[in-house]
Amino acid sequence: MIDISLITLNETAVENNITFLKKKLGEKVKISAVVKANAYGHGIEEIIPVFEKYGIEHYSVFYYSEAIRVFDCLSKPATIMVMGWLSEESIRDAIEKEIEFYVFNIERLNSAIKYAKELNLRAKIHLEAETGMNRSGLNIDELNKAIAIIKENIEYIEIAGFCTHLAGAESVSNDFRIQNQFKRYKKMLAILEANNLNPKYKHAANSAAAFVYPKTRLDLVRVGIMLYGFWSSTEVFIHYINSKHNKIDPLKRILRWHSQIMSIKKINSGEFVGYGISYLAQSNIKTALVPVGYSFGYSRSLSNKGRVLIRGCRCSVIGVVNMNMIIVDISHVSDAKLGDEVVLIGKQGELEIKVSAFSEISDELNYEILAHLPESIIRTVIKQ
Ligand SMILES: *Cc1c(COP(=O)(O)O)cnc(C)c1O
What is the value of pTM for the model shown? Predict the structure, then answer.
């Protein structure tokens, strides 16, 4: 654990986002909280107790290792769904632990049946349909094959879901493709149902699809980014807010990332600062050293561009981002002292460093920046 850079998670924001999502998606739609990539950088072990507290009882992950982390920190019964990778051995373990998983090829279906037979249990699977993203999923022929296999082994398989993933609902340019995908999904669902196989949950939408294409909500929405207080894209936000009188963003960011001043220096005009010749002081300046660098998810592309907050003032990163450090100009913060809080993401006083501002400079997605926050950063839950 490295204690010099901290993440605080605001419980009130979690409550706000879950309340908003439940209200908008309606009572009949189950929310599956997507907690892949260490809960979008928020920390699986830290955020799950808070999600539980506000009524989340369904979790989606990508890797089986993430499923196990969720399994180990749950304090109430909940469903865990693996959307991606699971090794042969973990299929057996998953069935034993009643962890649900996607089936997107016949091989995995056969493995599920094999282990379910050995254990004399039913594997809880989500059949994933290939509807046009061309990433993973069963095409119509494979679906028909899968149906035949399932019918022969029905005592070992529970169809927990029938699902697909839409290829980019956050941008209107994908509209045609998304609409076609959803049509194909419905067609494939009809094939399944015609065989008297009725999935417990039909699901297709992520955050963006649930808001832009309400009909894709079906029984369950796999909500990631919005739970954490971010819109999938500006387009999705505009789409939502346009029809509202109140133009205030209903979502609240949960995460605040901060560090502190490690050292302060005076630099004379004409001196270079940091490695090489990336920054030349144009006047006498005062700098603060902050012990966070690219090894901590603070991208090198923020060299000479990033902003942080110190004592309620915006300060610029000067020179290149190092592996473990950045240098910021604090000439205008006359009372800055060693140990002062440095906000990298989040609010301080009246100002805020938004993930979006950050991502515009570094050309990373919100998702990417959050997912890059190292697991070693200590995360604490607070109520604000
Ligand atoms: C990541 C993911 C989601 C969640 O997407 P958001 O845009 O964060 O809501 C949903 N479904 C699948 C298959 C995913 O991989």
Answer: 0.95
**Burial letters 50-60, b for 16+ CB under 10 A, else e:** bbbeeebebbb
Distance (angstroms) between ligand 1 centre and the Cα of 300 equals 27
CA of residue 328 to ligand 1 center, whole Å: 36
With contact defined as beta carbons under 8 Å apart, do 185 and 150 qualify? no
Does the Cβ of 92 fall within 6 Å of ligand 1? Answer: no
207 CB less than 6 Å from ligand 1? yes
Report whether 313 contacts 292 (CB < 8 A).
no
Q: Which residue type does 291 have?
A: P
- Of all protein residues, the one whose alpha carbon is nearest to atom 13 of ligand 1 is 165
Q: Say yes or no: CB of residue 82 within 6 Å of ligand 1.
A: no
Spatial separation of the C-alpha atoms in residues 85 and 244, rounded to whole Å = 40
Give the C-alpha distances (Å, rounded to integers) separating 235 from 182, 242, 345.
Answer: 20, 10, 22
Dihedral sign of CA atoms 203, 206, 209, 214 in order: positive
161 CB near ligand 1 (under 6 Å): no
For each of the domains in the chain, give its residue range(s) and CATH number, in order of start.
Answer: 11-241 (3.20.20.10), 255-353 (2.40.37.10)
Give dist(CA 208, CA 192) in Å, integer.
Answer: 26
Q: What is the pLDDT of residues 83-106, one digit of tens each?
A: 999 999 999 999 999 999 999 999
Give 20-49 pLDDT, tens digit per residue: 999 999 999 999 999 999 999 999 999 999
Ligand 1 and 222: CB distance under 6 A: yes
Q: Whose CA is nearest to atom 4 of ligand 1?
A: 224
